[in-house]
């Protein structure tokens, strides 16, 4: 039995691979949903808005290969027309023409469609929600994982951000001190992000030959993009808000966002039919306070995460542990495949 801690992209993918090899497993997930930092929400008029991971690019070959394997389509991010840019608080927002750049892509039907496809390939009773792991005990005959009850296993995969397991899970015997130290100083992808999305009945920006993009060095919105669906039947704008606003009330943040959008896009921006935001630093199973300031992607892909521990019975996953595009969906796919390959190889060796 393999216990996988976390039902995000890397954990689900590892489980998906193990299922195909008939290797028994269970996923223990603290949240009441699967997906982790992939969080697609149904807004008004059944408009999909991404409040978590959203975009990828052509170098993300691991993710692209998985989408091809699962027969999931994707489409290019709409960037036609002019964009708004505000260089400083003193300077007015101005319309600019975007330079040619490598396109970004979005998954057709929402990023959560990837999660749903992996999840649907598993047995539902092997994915246990609302199960917060508190302690992991390694002994001569296996592993005990303590959550709401005790789960017996041969191996454990930590498919959650390193900072979370380093600070929230008790290990017996203790993990090496250098591993714990680096894990606590590893930046968690998305932990500082605030995603915001507004849904509209009409794509007024496209009618005005605008891309829907907004870039601001002052905020509150720092990046904003067209978020219409591929079929161009649902309309939204979506992007990032400055993390410095996380301590404001919802009403204060919303008022600042609307004032910014009105001053940039004009009064049409006020005719939205839904407003959604997600402050990832308020997500208990994503954010954990750091003892010192961490740079974006700090210690992501560190070599210590590629080691196995407790006689190869503890394996470390999550996007932050990946040596390839760590901190992105592609990294989660890479490490999910790598961990599954290690377990499958060991399993086949034991059968000989």
UniProtKB/TrEMBL annotation:
GO terms for molecular function: oxidoreductase activity. The lineage of its organism: Bacteria, Pseudomonadati, Bacteroidota, Flavobacteriia, Flavobacteriales. Residues 9-85, 96-344 form the Amine oxidase domain. InterPro entries: Amino_oxidase (IPR002937), FAD/NAD-bd_sf (IPR036188), Flavin_MAO (IPR050703). This is NAD(P)-binding protein. It comes from Bizionia myxarmorum. Belongs to the flavin monoamine oxidase family. SUPFAM superfamilies: FAD-linked reductases, C-terminal domain, FAD/NAD(P)-binding domain.
